[in-house]
Amino acid sequence: MDTPALFAGGRLCLDFINTACMRRGVEIEFISDGEELMRWLRMAEEVTGTQLCDQREYREGMLSQAIELRGALHDLVHSAIEQRPPSAESLQTVNGILRAAPAYSQIGYERQGFQESHGNSRPEDQWRMAIAADAVDLLCHSDLSLLRQCECPSCVRVFYDTTKNHKRRWCVEKCGSAPKAAAYYRRKVAKAAEAHSKIVEPAAGDALNAGDLRLQ
Ligand SMILES: [Zn+2]
Q: Which positions fall inside the Zinc finger CGNR domain (predicted)?
């Protein structure tokens, strides 16, 4: 798997939505079975530093829960990008997960001092609770104008633009270079066509041709 592309969303919940994407017009599914889902969760844990897998084993039902959550988050995030209200069903799905597994704060003490950690009443649901909680933070407490879909026509990934000038247009560099290459090709063809028309254009001093044209 291409890790930078897989975690190009810049937010856990967006990376999770991006596990279903497109490449050159073909749909790609990164969590098509339990093993792939667990692999993605472990990778996400490493990349984002969020604890996701309390238990390392795949449990029955996790995959359908993941697909349901992803579908709901996809609707919520796209409603924000498209500035339309989300479906009540999507809100219900995410809120149901948040309600079923409330997280609580814990105080720890280490050499550096007090440390806050988060516990969960249903450790087996830690993974989807963390993804849903990240969506709450993104949708309710972040600048939604920085939430975007990749501008590459054959890409559907979403990302949160944290660049300094907020002008990020593509999820990964590769997506930006495809339209650039197409534009370069178009310019090259236009230039070649222009050069060709100059060669076949009648010379300025060609009186006979000019006269012929006036007589018509
Ligand atoms: Zn892209």
A: 147-188
Q: How far is the CA of 23 from the centre of ligand 1 (A)?
A: 9
Question: Could you tell me the distance, in angstroms and rounded to a whole number, from the CA of residue 172 to the centre of ligand 1?
Answer: 6
- Compute the C-alpha angle 62/67/68, nearest 5°: 95
Phi, psi of 25 (to 5 degrees): 80, 0
Q: What length does the chain have? A: 216
Structure tokens at 7: 């975690």
> 160 with 14: CB under 8 angstroms?
yes
The DSSP annotation for 63-86 comes to HHHHHHHHHHHHHHHHHHHTTSPP
Strands 103-110, 113-120: pairing is: antiparallel
| Contact indicator for 177, 50 with CB cutoff of 8 Å | no
Backbone angles phi, psi at 110, to 5 degrees: -130, -175
State in Å: Cα 119 to ligand 1 middle: 35
pLDDT digits (tens, 9 = 90+) for 55-80: 678 889 999 999 999 999 999 999 99
Cα of 46 from ligand 1 centre, angstroms: 22
Does the model's pTM come out above 0.90? no
- According to the 3-state scheme, what is the secondary structure of 140-155? HHCCHHHEEECCCCCC
* 184 C-alpha to ligand 1 centroid (Å): 19
